[in-house]
Design goal:
The complex is a heterodimer of chains A (97) and B (308). Chain A has 97 residues and is mostly helical. In chain A, 65% of the residues lie in helices and 11% in strands. Chain B contains 11 helices and 11 strands. With 308 residues, chain B is α+β, with helices and mostly antiparallel strands. Classes of the chains: A mainly alpha (97), B alpha+beta (308).
Chain lengths: 97, 308
């Protein structure tokens, strides 16, 4: 399999100074998807933005992985509510003008 | 001149920022910092300028109160911080007022494009304070910008160049973007701290109203005037759609306010090329005025026919 668009977990461990178990725990909790190719674990490079956010929350705020999962779910909810609010506001403009 | 600058800087009560008592223990300060950081961290409160500002203040307060040496200096000179320069002068052999290039040296403090520290912090701790900061990597600040588009511009995918902090950024605006929608351009925000990643640029679109079409997500709404005779007898009319004209059949006996849907003649669906919403036409029937004698006579006749 072509791993061009994937980053080895070991590289992430080195970069963020984290144990491999941290990433495995993220995978077990469904926060990231780890791909195993020839006994090497990878993540897709598109998930880096999300991983960095998780690492920051973990390191800066001492939030554990379960907590991060809750935070991410709530942020997602806020995001969809904000989108809904925007749509309602735009719809309201139909009647206000 | 440097001293004059000092007089205009506002004193920052770091204890107030962290919401702790002046006698707070190291553990209490740490706890307060963590609690506030969890509340205002940019990842927890994305796109919230106020939270971002608070987070910087909290970090700065923790930087000082969380470090025994800095806290001691702050406690001793904080409220009368202008004396800190004299303190520094006595203890560190003219850091601020050393011979030659004094003004330049001062200007270097906190003037490297990174505004994460207040002038107050810089005046009290200078570069030394900055260097001893924790080695945590922080993402750079996110920038926000607003861009006005007219409805025609939002109708088609096109490229646009904007200038942010003197840098030209070219990006694609997908067709179907909504009023108030924000798109993120990754890595075009401020520089990260301690090698952290650059922040992002968030552009919010303000889409101006169109005189003829109103938009609700992917659907467009327009009002078309219909003369009385066409409404009564039916026929065919040509209406303006957003990208041209369309022929429309009018059923006999069409009522005022009747709505008809022109499928696929609405607005492009965001990021779904080839998909369009619908155009809803509302008929507004025009009652003829300034009738001639002949017309009046015929309307009277019609009225009598209706009554019988």
């Amino acid at each position: 399999m072509n791993t061009e668009n994937f980053i080895p977990i070991s590289t992430l461990c080195q970069h963020y100074k984290l144990e491999i178990s941290f990433f495995n725990h993220l995978d077990e909790n469904g926060l990231i998807d780890i791909l195993l190719v020839d006994n090497t674990q990878y993540v897709h490079k598109e998930s880096i933005y999300e991983i960095e956010k998780i690492v920051r929350m973990h390191k800066d705020l001492d939030v554990n992985i379960e907590g991060i999962d809750v935070v991410l779910n709530l942020l997602q909810k806020i995001d969809s509510l904000q989108t809904e609010l925007l749509r309602v506001r735009n719809r309201l403009l139909l009647y206000e003008n | 001149m440097v001293i004059e600058n000092h007089f205009f800087m506002a004193f920052i009560d770091y204890y107030k920022v962290l919401e702790v008592d002046k006698k707070a223990t190291e553990a209490e300060i740490k706890k307060a910092y963590r609690k506030l950081a969890r509340k205002y961290h940019p990842d927890i409160s994305p796109n919230d300028k106020e939270a971002e500002k608070r987070f910087k203040e909290i970090n700065e307060a923790n930087e000082v109160l969380g470090n025994a040496e800095k806290r001691k200096k702050y406690d001793a000179y904080g409220e009368h911080w202008q004396h800190a320069a004299e303190f520094e002068k006595a203890n560190q052999n003219q850091r601020y007022y050393g011979s030659g290039g004094t003004q330049e040296e001062f200007n270097n403090y906190g003037r490297d494009g990174n505004d994460d520290y207040s002038d107050f912090f810089e005046s009290l701790f200078g570069n030394a304070g900055r260097r001893s900061r924790s080695t945590h990597q922080f993402k750079g600040p996110d920038y926000t910008s607003e861009l006005q588009l007219n409805l025609e511009e939002a109708y088609s995918t096109h490229k646009k160049t904007i200038t942010v902090n003197g840098k030209n950024i070219r990006f694609t605006i997908p067709a179907g973007i909504e009023n108030g929608q924000t798109i993120k351009i990754a890595g075009h925000g401020g520089d990260g701290r301690n090698g952290g990643p650059k922040g992002d640029l968030y552009i919010t679109f303000i889409i101006n109203n169109h005189p003829d079409f109103k938009r609700d997500k992917d659907n467009l709404y327009a009002t078309v005037s219909l003369d009385l005779y066409k409404a009564v007898l039916g026929g065919e009319i040509t209406v303006n759609t957003f990208d041209g004209k369309a022929k429309l059949k009018v059923a006999p006996g069409t009522q005022n306010g009747t709505k008809v849907k022109l499928k696929g003649k609405g607005f492009p669906v965001y990021k779904k090329e080839g998909y369009f919403g619908d155009l809803y036409i509302t008929f507004q029937i025009k009652i003829p005025t300034h009738l001639s004698a002949k017309e009046m006579e015929l309307f009277n006749e019609l009225s009598k026919l209706r009554a019988s």
